[in-house]
Here is the input.
Amino acid sequence: MKRINWGIIGLGNIANRHLKSFEKSLNSKLKGVASRNLENLKNFKKKVKIDDKFYFDNYEDLIKNSEIDIIYIALPNSYHYEWINKCIDHNKHILVEKPITENFFQLEKIKNRLLQKKSNVLIYEGFMYKYHPQIKKVLDLVNNNEIGEIKKIVSSFGVNLLTKKYFWFFKKKRKIDKENRLFNKKLGGGSILDLGCYPVSFTTMLLEKFNFINFEDYKVLNKKVEIGESGVDVDSKIEMIAKGSITIKLSSSFKKNIGSATEIHGSRGSIEILNTWSGSSNIILKKGDKKNIIRFNKIDDTYFDQLNVISNDLLNKNIGQNLDNMLLNMKIIDQWLN
Here is the structure.
């Protein structure tokens, strides 16, 4: 079977977590990697069998390589815009870690550049949860009108990174590394860009089915953004209304363990996803007094389905992800942040 040759730039934790996916995949091959951190490059060599000539200590040489079909950009948010453009320069397809850019205007420039070049480069944003069976089931339930007309969406993603338990009921403040990408404003840190982008993307994916595709379809009612000591947001909420009828409440946090549940309320029932982003939790479908629990097996490799679908798209010359949906996500995120 023909396989798509992948290259990775940036060899941090997220890149390492994809290795299991490449080992299992029948349509994808990890062909080359690049890192400016020589220690990371050395450690990666111990884990992966790649020809030595496909290890690079700079990103551009990997991108220029004629044997690479697609580049996975596993870099902090502030580097996405630059290296997406470098990939476009060399006609490489792209999977970029979420969020695709730091703001709407960067992504708008990328779209205009692709149109001007009449480029066939496909860009994918790394929301692996979209490819999991439980999300496909949720979309089927909504599209089949199981809960009727959507009235309300509530979705959260948050973990407490700022305090830890100290004896019984006492909490102790954690020492925060301000250079860490999560807390570094120059690297595009903050809870909204790191976690809040998930509930935003889920909401627009769900409502895209009903042709809610423009920012004009959404109105921000109120929001809360708490800025932490390093200058990035650490606890945030936004409330919107879509087309004047659907209430949307989204939350992200580095301060509280608010979990990762999503609720979709309709005119005839509701759907609750207990853990929206892991792909392995139950779905609870409620209709009147009846409750149906739909169970899913634990997913050991949360990135495999994403890798498989993207490589299959490239092999079969499929269209790929909708860039306009990504633009809508970034517009909402901009409104939430600013």
Observations:
- Residues 67 and 159 are 40 Å apart (CA to CA).
- The chain is about 30% helix and 25% strand.
- Residues 133-298 form a domain with the Dihydrodipicolinate Reductase; domain 2 fold (CATH 3.30.360.10).
- The radius of gyration is 20 Å.
